[in-house]
UniProtKB/TrEMBL annotation:
Heme binds at residue 288. This is Cytochrome P450 71A1. One of its GO terms (molecular function) is iron ion binding. It comes from the Eukaryota. The lineage of its organism: Eukaryota, Viridiplantae, Streptophyta, Embryophyta, Tracheophyta. It comes from Dichanthelium oligosanthes.
């Protein structure tokens, strides 16, 4: 019993020393700030591990949403790493546009160093002259409209593989359309009688070059001390942009939880990174350099529109809408609990407008 009691006493003493050290360090840092602005609100954090336990397992985007609605702009400690969580379009604009030069760093993670050439690629390279040269090469020589069009034959060979990868996104979209058939039928005439544009428009030649877009990233860090909405943000603070919560902000969207495709009809909201209510490709200096190309997004739209254009879709006899359910996940596309099985009824061939692909392009 004596050795066990001794080990328990040592453990308590160690925890007491660590806690006292953390408290003294926190008080000293506050005193050192002097007249500087206070950091953003932060939920209570444990010594050493910070707020990691409050995130736990499961859907981190929902837990960040809950914390943000309780505290506003968040300042978390993920272990020893200070982290700011952005959950509103206005703060995202301040971070990705107004102070883009400050929040353009990239965390140097051990995993990235081991897998991505020591963080020397365009995605994880530190901000500086080398990164600017890499991005310039990518934008001018790899992702220009002329270069992209030169790979057309190769892209056609890879379409089958790419369709398999985006199957989850299409399946989810079809599930939403089946659940909202009244709204779906309103868009069929638009798919079957779309406005023709020049074929080269589909290749991106009529759009601004990728480098002209103002964009951002959801995993960046600060390169210097700064002030954000009257809050002090120290250098090397990591930045998490909860785009999921921004897309469900009631101040930016009407009925954000409802399936309302009409909200994007006759709207200037796009995915170029200029409207910070909708930033699927991020924005700013660290935004996706191929944002003007957006091939996967265009392919999803093209496939989905073709399916709506050529078929009427119904559930099998005896199956109810409640029989399939979208499963929320932290990945790029949500999935379904069970496979989506639909009955496709072919429509008459398009004669007035020709092939659906040409109409859409």
């Amino acid at each position: 019993m004596a050795p066990a009691q001794l080990d328990s006493s040592l453990l308590r003493s160690l925890l007491l020393v660590v806690s006292c050290f953390a408290i003294v360090r926190s008080l000293w840092s506050r005193r050192k700030q002097g007249g500087r602005a206070a950091p953003p609100p932060s939920p209570p954090a444990w010594p050493v591990i910070g707020n990691i336990l409050q995130l736990g397992q499961g859907h981190h985007h929902r837990k960040l949403q809950s914390l943000a609605r309780r505290h506003g702009p968040l300042f978390l400690c993920l272990g020893s790493v200070p982290t700011v969580v952005v959950s509103s379009a206005s703060v995202a604009e301040a971070v990705l546009k107004t102070q883009d030069h400050v929040f353009c760093g990239r965390p140097q993670q051990h995993t990235a160093r081991g897998v991505l050439y020591g963080c020397q690629d365009i995605g994880f390279s530190p901000y500086g002259e080398r990164w600017r040269q890499l991005r310039r090469i990518a934008v001018v020589h790899l992702l220009s409209a002329k270069r992209v069009d030169s790979f057309r034959a190769l892209r056609e060979e890879e379409v089958a593989s790419l369709v398999a990868r985006i199957r989850a996104a299409i399946e989810w979209a079809m599930a939403e359309l089946i659940k909202n058939q009244r709204k779906w039928r309103r868009y069929k005439p638009r798919c079957r009688g779309g406005t023709r544009t020049s074929p080269r428009g589909a290749a991106g030649e009529d759009e601004p070059p990728p480098g002209s877009h103002e964009g951002s990233d959801a995993a960046t860090s600060t390169v210097q001390d700064t002030d954000l909405h009257n809050y002090d943000i120290p250098a090397k603070t990591r930045l998490i942009i909860n785009a999921w919560e921004i897309g469900r902000d009631g101040e930016s969207w009407e009925n954000p939880e409802d399936f309302l495709p009409d909200r994007f009809v006759h709207s200037d909201i796009g995915y170029s990174g200029k409207d910070f209510r909708f930033i699927p490709f991020s924005a700013g200096r660290r935004g996706c350099p191929s944002i003007a190309f957006a091939f996967a997004t265009r392919l999803v739209e093209l496939v989905l529109a073709n399916l709506m254009c050529h078929f009427d879709w119904e559930l099998p006899e005896g199956q109810e809408l409640e029989s399939f359910e979208v499963v929320e996940s932290s990945g790029l596309s949500p999935g379904l609990k069970s496979a989506l099985i639909l009955v496709a009824k072919p429509l008459q061939a398009l004669t007035a407008y020709g092939d659906c692909n040409k109409v859409l392009m």
